[in-house]
Amino acid sequence: MDINTKKIKKNAYRVTKERGKTALRIRVPGGHLEVKYFDIIKEIAEKFGDGSVHITIRQGFEVPGIDFDKIPKINRMIAPIIQGLELDYGVNIEEVEQGYPAAGTRNVSACIGNKVCPFANYNTTDLAIKIEKSIFPNDRHVKIACTGCPNDCIKAHMQDFGIIGQVEPVYDASRCVGCEACVKNCKKRVTGALRMENYKVKRDEDRCLGCGECILKCPTGAWSRNPEKFFRVVIMGRTGKRNPRLAETFLEWVDEATVIKIIQNTYDFIESYIDKEAPGGKEHIGYIVDRAGYYTFKEYALKDVTLGPKAKVAQYIDFGGYKYERNVYFDKNSK
After folding, report:
1. Distance separating alpha carbons of residues 178 and 81, to the nearest angstrom
2. CATH number of the structural domain 109-166+229-326
3. How far lies 222's CA from each of 34, 170, 194, in Å?
4. How many CA atoms lie within 13 A of 7 on its CB side?
């Protein structure tokens, strides 16, 4: 078969193990999709696929079992979904009937956020869509996830960028009855950032994650939310074969504008330092940072960024992780 696989992949179709068959990948920014589009996905799966839909780890839909020669027709069918990205979210996509213009930057995923979850500190879908608007379409391989609180249900620590919601708890000592509900919860479930002193609560700002659980636990409303939204940004987490690792904290107590700007700046960093001989022109950003160095990445990421008075920046990050050097972990002679 005379198939331009590079073009197919860029158009958001997968090269599968079944000869002559492909799989369509549908973006769902923030994990949120209007149900009016479900009929389109169902029709494609039933008429041109194998009748099934796979929900990907990044919250998109994948429709397998499609013949390669049906791609142009399917692209026209999904035009309303792609146009929805443009009309509903402001994502700039030209020629919507040609299908997705890029697939390198993965779907921006998100937990359910504060629309539903009492622990979430912000509207994760809303931020995911804003990030999608600022970076898509793009061919560079970048993974981003938004999670509402440090519980990290979306697994932000396994992404290139994980955006974790933070809230600054405001304490009204006049409403506190000294029940210690917040202190006990923080000690058992969080970081032990709260302690009792002269029958009132003291918060250690260096240990506080900004999870907001003290606010939820207080029976008298002594804790309230600073209405300003803050975020912790963790970076360069990954799976893979060479050096899997969890993301590490890069920024704390930053605002939404900073989050979006540092992600945009990172694409300039990638263009400057990507391995030009990388297979298929694709290189995981974490390996680029490893090669260029954290300080170089930080310089690019923070270019033209104005940090707020509460913001914290990691001075150095030792990413670590582990490598598949099996002789380190296993004794070949042991039984």
Report:
1. 54
2. 3.30.413.10
3. 39, 8, 14
4. 7
Query: Mapping DSSP to helix (H, G, I), strand (E, B) and coil, where does residue 316 land?
Result: coil
Q: What fold characterizes domain 5-98?
A: Sulfite Reductase Hemoprotein; domain 2 (3.90.480)
Residue 52: what residue type?
Answer: S
Tokens describing residue 56: 């990907």
CA separation for the pair 295, 300 (Å, rounded)? 9
Q: Which CATH number fits domain 170-225: 3.30.70.20, 1.10.580.10, 3.30.70.890, 3.50.50.60?
A: 3.30.70.20
Phi/psi for 227 (5° steps) reads -65, -20
The DSSP result for 220-250, as a single string, is S--EEE-SS-EEEEEE--B-SSS--B--EEE
- Calpha distance 268→30 (Å, rounded): 24
Joined tokens for residue 25: 């990948």
Q: Is residue 6 classed exposed, middle or buried when 0-12, 13-18 and 19+ CB atoms within 10 A define those classes?
A: exposed
Q: Which of 262, 230, 261 is nearest to 164 (CA)?
A: 230
Query: pLDDT tens digits, residue range 37-88?
Result: 999 999 999 999 999 999 999 999 999 999 999 999 999 999 999 998 877 7
Q: What are the residues facing 109 on neighbouring strands?
A: 145
pTM: 0.93
Contacts of 14 (CB under 8 A, 6+ apart): 22, 23, 24, 25, 62
Q: What distance in Å separates the CA atoms of residue 139 and residue 157, rounded to the nearest whole number?
A: 23
